[in-house]
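Hi everyone,

Forwarding the result from last night's run.
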Amino acid sequence: MGNDKTKTFSKNIMQNAARYGVFIIFGIMFIIFALSNEHFFTVKNIFLILQQASPLGIGVIGMTFVLVLASIDISVGRNMFFAATIIAYMSKVNLLRVDMFEQAWGYILVCLICVAIGIAIGFINGLLYTKFKITPFIVTLATGYILRGFGLMISGSASPNLTLISKLSNGSVANVPYVLIIFIVVAIIFDFVLRKTPFGRHLMAIGNSPESAKKAGIKVERNTVISFMICGGLGALGGILSAGQIGSVPLSFGEGNEFIIISAAVLGGTSLFGGKGNIIPGAVIGIVLITTIMNGLSMVNASPYIYTIVRAFIIFLAVMVDSIEHKGELR
């Protein structure tokens, strides 16, 4: 009996140390950045961080719905690239009237087209996973490379221009960036879906035990496909907003975004082992923390090679914390 209490106490210590230790590490890094550059903790830079975090944050929200199922979608970065090239192609060939971009409805229309394409991609991913029982890692890896190939074909192996949509991505109202407003609205809507609706509760049940969920009458396959569709649609939306911020779609655009998105979701409290997800404040805090680190590195003029090392460290940290929280020990 005493041994059980000791094990439980040790497990709780490990879990709390892992969770709060991460924020202590981030806090120390923030202090270092603030001491190194007086502009780091200014209002202007904070809004810049939030603006930079918003597009990827939308992708994090979508990824949360897939991770809750103990699944994964690593095609999201290439989905973002493909969606951005589609928008660039439409403006390049004048598929849609150019003057439509002078009106709010024009932005809404192109975003809806982009999201619809992303939803279709998510549907394909979910269908291949549920109907053919192919591991989601393999399914999304394959579809991701297909998407990048199609994106390169569409862009003609050149970097297309995206200045039209950049008006949305870099614009603001009352000094509040449009992309931040979109991010907040998306976060509120999907946090409600995940926390308060039967669909969200069903996803949690599926993530904890698919077999038990099926016995309880939950439509496991249908809900799984819908989750992948949500991930695909939000990934596409995040993709065009992210590309709009730089005004073009470089050939390397979106590469590695999937790992940043997954790390942000896990740091925010969503488990890779399924059954647990958190959008507000979890996913929001996760992507803001990572973006703040990247912003800080930029402000202290860190070597470009450091960024890759830091991203790898964050991924490792996120997985380690999730493993400890799940079992109370490293797996």
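The mean pLDDT is 86.

Cheers,
N.
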